[in-house]
Amino acid sequence: MGLDMQATVYFGDDIPLNCHRIEVRIRNLSQLFDYRDPSPFLAKDLDNDAQQYIVASAGEFSARLPLALVVHLREPMDSPEEARDAGEAIREHFVRQSGFVHLRLKELVHDGLISLAIGLAFLSATLTAAAALAAWAETSPAANVVREGLVICGWVAMWRPIQIFLYDWWPLLGDRRLFDRLARMPVQLIFPPAAPPPPSA
């Protein structure tokens, strides 16, 4: 929608009443996007500071309710096209971020499976060697030390896959879910109207 009021212009999506509103106040829209990015406007990345603020603000709200972004600009919009496309550009940014996290999650699971296979093979070898030393370990303190060392080394080799599958994957899954929520949020711009042209002489 684009609705002119006496001193303020509202542009973008309607904000449902049940949304958690993330409020951003900037001078103009260029502060929201990384304008060093040569991509077309709809494919531009957000400025890093702006993304961190939006993500941190979203993380403070309950995941049960949808999110909405309200961008307050202190300057009028020079480009009606950018005002129209800003919401879609912001959502597309978070779609890309969700995709990046999904790739990282897939790579982590792949690395975890490889680590698990290596760890299980090494654990099996060390336990087999430790079992072969069992008879000597009863009469030789040195053999017992070697046997216990083999068992410990075998289980230490399982540390990495255990860490991946117990701890490392779920923060990435949480990040992806948050980016997915941000990729669906309505975006509204609020800015002052452009100054009227000077009267002709």
Structural account:
The protein has helices at 48-59, 80-132, 134-137, 141-156, 159-182, and strands at residues 2-4, 9-12, 20-26, 67-73, 187-191. It folds into 2 domains: 2-96 and 183-191, no CATH class; 102-176. Helix 2 (80-132) packs antiparallel against helix 4 and helix 2 (80-132) packs antiparallel against helix 5 (159-182). The two termini are 35 Å apart. The chain has 5 helices and 5 strands. The relative contact order is 0.20. Strands 1-2-5-4-3 form a 5-stranded mixed β-sheet, covered by helices on one side. 54% of the residues lie in helices and 13% in strands. It has 201 residues and is of the alpha/beta class. The model is unreliable at 1-6 (pLDDT under 50).
Low-confidence parts lasting 5 or more residues at pLDDT below 50?
1-6
User: What coarse outline follows from CA principal-axis ratios?
Assistant: rod-shaped
Beta content comes to 5-15%
Q: What profile does the largest beta sheet have?
A: 5 strands, mixed
On the 0-100 scale, what is the average pLDDT? 88
Write out the strand line-up for the largest beta sheet, numbering strands in chain order: 1-2-5-4-3
Secondary-structure element pattern, one letter each = EEEHEHHHHE
